[in-house]
Amino acid sequence: MSETKNGEREQLASRIGFLLISAGCAIGLGNVWRFPFITGKYGGGAFVLVYLLFLLLLGLPIMIMEFSIGRAGRKNIAGALKALEPPQSKWHIAGYLGIIGNVILMMFYTTVAGWGFAYLYREATGAFNGLPPEEIGAMFGAFLGSTGELIFWMAIVVLLGFFICSLGLQKGVEKAGKIMMSGMFIMLLILVAKAVTLPGASAGLAFYLKPDFSSLSGEAIYAAMGQAFFTLSLGIGSMAIFGSYIGKERSLTGESLHVMALDTLVALLAGMVIFPAAFAFGVDAGAGPGLVFVTLPNIFNQMLGGQIWGTLFFLFLTFAAMTTVIAVFENIMAFTIDEWGWTRKKASVINGIGIFILSLPCALGFGPWSSFAPLGEGTVVLDLEDFILSNNLLPLGALVFVLFCSNGFGWGWSNFTKEADTGEGIKFPKWIKPYVSYVLPLIILVVFFMGWKDIILKLLT
User: Fold this and answer.
1) Would you say residue 362 has pLDDT above 90?
2) For the domain with range 15-460, which CATH number is right: 3.40.50.450, 1.20.1740.10, 3.40.1110.10, 3.30.450.20?
3) Buried/exposed code over 200-209 (b: 16+ C-beta within 10 A; e: otherwise)
């Protein structure tokens, strides 16, 4: 249960456990395929600098707020908002929407995570060995059309994720987070060492990391803003739950900086694997799923010992996906434990069955339901679910958290900063209150409206 027999809330066993599972929640598939691509597209090192600036301006304050709400409320995001809100107010409604957001995220993330497991199996068993590039490309298309296989791998993700959560906060979630995150960094470092020593790798590194400020258009700046916001999955309370599991020994500004540093390091290292390898073998780095599931298997096929390197990469990919899955599953489970009094075992079983059923439309969307194009030609169920979450629930939830923590009609600035500053470490700068209260909400609204603009233009064309 989320509470022990003497009524005290479960706590994480160590600070490193908190940092690793919080970072694991933020680190996901977007770090592996989206960040390297848009970094190369928008000026390499110049884009990285702008991205880091937006991480500090946009991502950091919201993350600190989520952790503070969770630690002060000692519950899931809905329960925490209810515990902290002024009497007769309805801030907790945003918490329920946040829990719905976590569920929607898992409705499509479990299927995509299943792709990683499927390709780990294929790479490990030598399914790509000797195949020409066009056949590897066709294999991905055939895989997406195999609904039974998609459902099988999605079920593996759901079963494994909830099994780990059922073992308990310390013995399951924290232990798995430590193992997977440690393994992920070891695998990344090995892959980087291999990639940067390939013939021609230096050109890929130059393309990826050399600043090209001429590429910094308004579109590039918006892309940096969006990546900084979406990479951390802020706005649905997925970080707040881990704030509720920690003590008051450390200030939350310093802890948030550590989590963001881990997330950014993984993204940067993933680019140092992909770009040198792509340049070494003269292929387009591409974008989206095609980069990971078509381009990279082709590259590994051409490398000496490619099956080993490919297996290592897809093991890293599945670890990156599963750290997010386990963290979000824990958030969903904590809600049912806190609000409905379920035991951890009961929450694991019922939520597991529920998430599996709710994940079926995404898997079916590539096969029997592929004619359903909810957001225009070429879109599938996954695109609709991602749009509801990324373009609506994430920015609007983040806006609510900012208003709740910075204004007197919510929890309030003094309560927020007192909680954030409790413990040793870096303190939250009080002088940025005008920025947090007035400028940050405007930046979030820009992210929200730009997301709608993009989808409206897509529907009109």
Assistant:
1) yes
2) 1.20.1740.10
3) ebeebbebbb
